[in-house]
Amino acid sequence: MTTYDLVRGLHILAVIAWMAGLLFLPRLYAYDAEQADKAEPLRGEMRALLRQWQTRLLGIIVNPAMGAAWIFGAWLIWIDGTARGWDVLLQPWMLAKLAGVLALSGWHGFLGGERGRIHAGTSTRTGRFWRMTNEIPFVIAVVMVLSVTTEWTFG
């Protein structure tokens, strides 16, 4: 086993945890938004529980997993760049991967900010919005994974 193999495995594990959180958090937000239609006693208890889950998911899984994915990803770029040359960063497949990383990081930031608005009672997002946007990270991940595994180019 090489260092590259170990770092790649750790990167994949971090990305799996990050993606799991990015896919589950909007679902929790949808359930939270839909509590407005429930009877008062259930709504209060359920919202408190959902908000506790949201906070824990972000703090214990999503944020650390993103940090680990970034660290191991940067390490992989370093290993790859020193072995194959830094022009690898300009390859179309790598640019697609890096654009995906920025998009997922932006979505992560949006979800974190929205948690604050939800907890403050200022969010205007509906359960329908969260259900419609729930798959955004998966679509981005499909492009990223296929880019890296095929290393496609133009021409």
Explain what you see.
The longest helix has 45 residues, at 40-84. It is elongated and about 60 Å long. 83% of the residues lie in helices and 0% in strands. The mean pLDDT is 94. The protein has helices spanning 3-34, 40-84, 92-120, 127-133, 136-150. The chain is built from five helices and no strands. The chain is mainly α and 155 residues long.
In brief, what are we looking at here?
This protein has helices at 3-34, 40-84, 92-120, 127-133, 136-150. It is mainly alpha-helical and 155 residues long.
Task: State the main characteristics.
155 residues; mainly alpha; 5 helices; 83% helix; elongated
SSE sequence, one letter per element: HHHHH
Weakly predicted, low-confidence segments: none
Quickly give the structural class.
mainly alpha
Mean pLDDT: 94
Number of strands: 0
As a percent range, the share of helical residues equals over 70%
Q: How many individual helices? A: 5
What is the overall shape? Answer: elongated
% residues in beta strands = under 5%
Q: What gap, in angstroms, lies between the N and C termini? A: 34 Å
The multimeric state of the shown protein is single chain
Largest sheet: none
Rg to the nearest angstrom? 18 Å
